[in-house]
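Posting this for the archive.
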Amino acid sequence: WCYLPVMGFVSFNDEAEQYLCAAVLRPGNVTAPAGAVGILRRLLMIVREFFPGVRIRIRLDGGFAHPALLDFLDAEPKLEYVVATVSDVLQRDGYGSALCNEQLAVTIECGGSGYLKIGPALDALEDQAEGLGAAFYWTLIHVLYRVMRIYDHSDALMYEEMLIESANEDDEENRSQYEFPEVEKALPACIQKTLKEKWRLEDRRLLRAHGKGPHRSWIGRLRKMQRLSRLRLEQWREPLEDRYYDGPPLPSLLVAFKERDAITACFDEEGQHMLEGSSEPTVCVVFSPKKAEEVKHAVRVIERFVAFNVELFELVEELGWETKNAGADSNRGELSLRAA
């Protein structure tokens, strides 16, 4: 979707000035540590050539805390390193204190965004019963928002609104250069009809009524995700309120209706900047190993988050396979996401 640049800066002693010494443009689908060992090996060789005998300190963002990279740094002579971990950035109770002694933090970070093309599935559900596709979509969006950050039509609408505001504030001769995605026109008819109402109580009844129909597996997984999403999120997101991250969590999932539709186009534009800084973790739970209740709560949060994502992966696979191979007799024993 975009690129993941990595940059290195050098400074001397206590000087505040930093000098750019390395810049590598990497594909957007790699993890933060990718290529870091090679970059550092080259930089260390150059620094030692020009400053022989100097003691080197390397500062790394938390995303670079990979065993292979740390082993490399440990083996280097006259070198010390500092890795910014969650204890450096977590805030407790809004007072700015770091993790207390005998506390641990478990974080899960999103290194890239998944993709769900849901339009064909909504068409199939609407063919079964009017309003069923809209009920499925709004329930799914509501459930996903409880657990993770996603990019959907509402984000695209906000981006379009921002473009319109920018065009109105620009000089008149430049306004013709703006291209607007017209997001609302790209929405399926069933979503356009319910755009202002969104989730309704009757949607639950509609999904339950068709829970044993042709698309019972989709609805069954959605209802299971509903149950798994009933976490008290504020308990484990509160420590990040006064975070020192460059931005919110990366979207775990892009929800679009068609390939290369207006939502995907907006995400492509905004996604170019999403991996340029340190993003807040998708999940963070703090606990004391000596307190049984806190340990149980941490394990429960992580277990349910993983279980939720398993159901989501399976649902994405089913939606994609069923709508692509409707009526076909194919072997589904090897689901691509499960194999990956």
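The radius of gyration is 24 Å. Residues 133 and 271 are 28 Å apart (CA to CA).
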